[in-house]
Amino acid sequence: xxxxxxxxxxxxxxxxxxxxxxxxxxxxxxxxxxxxxxxxxxxxxxxxxxxxxxxxxxxxxxxxxxxxxxxxxxxxxxxxxxxxxxxxxxxxxxxxxxxxxxxxxxxxxxxxxxxxxxxxxxx
Amino acid sequence: xxxxxxxxxxxxxxxxxxxxxxxxxxxxxxxxxxxxxxxxxxxxxxxxxxxxxxxxxxxxxxxxxxxxxxxxxxxxxxxxxxxxxxxxxxxxxxxxxxxxxxxxxxxxxxxxxxxxxxxxxxxxxxxxxxxxxxxxxxxxxxxxxxxxxxxxxxxxxxxxxxxxxxxxxxxxxxxxxxxxxxxxxxxxxxxxxxxxxxxxxxxxxxxxxxxxxxxxxxxxxxxxxxxxxxxxxx
Lengths: 123, 234
Hints:
The complex is a heterodimer of chains A (about 120) and B (about 230).
Chain A: H1 2-22, H2 28-43, H3 50-60, H4 62-65, H5 67-71, H6 77-82, H7 84-119
Chain B: H1 2-9, H2 12-32, H3 42-55, H4 60-66, H5 68-71, H6 74-80, H7 82-87, H8 89-93, H9 96-120, H10 125-131, H11 138-148, H12 152-176, H13 182-204, H14 206-232
């Protein structure tokens, strides 16, 4: 477990180093994710290895990690009440638009490619 | 004596205990309702903890400070999203092209509608800047909000709320919208509902979870790059 934790933190740290050196407008942990992906592809760890177990444990409780940010709602109750309409409408509509745009484009492209693949042998 | 007790109740120890107890309650509710979509553990956790710190008269900054012990792990957890991605890598390659078209469009749509609608409905520039980065995962949306003149802590709240919307509603809505491919569903979830949505996807289906995690990472990156561009044309 400690070894796995070290691997995760090291990837995050190196991600931060990459961001600091290149000034990429990307968060360090996202670069860390790419680094860990490379590490996994290289080492091909077994399912009971520390890195795999630590990662699974963290992902299993992903929602817990957002609780502190969510609790910030108590600090902004007045602002949220006063601007309920612009904040609420903008949040819901924008969230829905993002969801559907991405979903429809990918689903559409996959369906289109599926049809193209089916027709290809006949041509 | 009572002073001592109150001090103990306001200590980081008890605030962390409250956070974990709220989350445990959420997990229990998820279990007893047979994983009902409404029973996302983050919701009771935020409600109980929020009520608790209000009653104890602890201000949010002090709570957030104590809760760093929890929120710190968001970074390593983001790194850990490489694991489902690695397991699904062969399926990722097949969707690379549609994904690289859909995610930037999704990010632009999210930023522009969030920003534009606040203005349209009479909100201030500060509120619009607060909303614009909400599709990126919290650590990123907070940083972006700061850069473009929003209120970072409020951005964190709306970001988590967007995630909760995703975890509760997105699977049903996507089915209605005929988005049935697991890969498309995961990408849409991660692009709009970051980590909280991803946790729902991961518990529904591993493929969906992997693509959601991937979309979350890429959307964080794309939002960072595209926010200055979209806000330039305002």
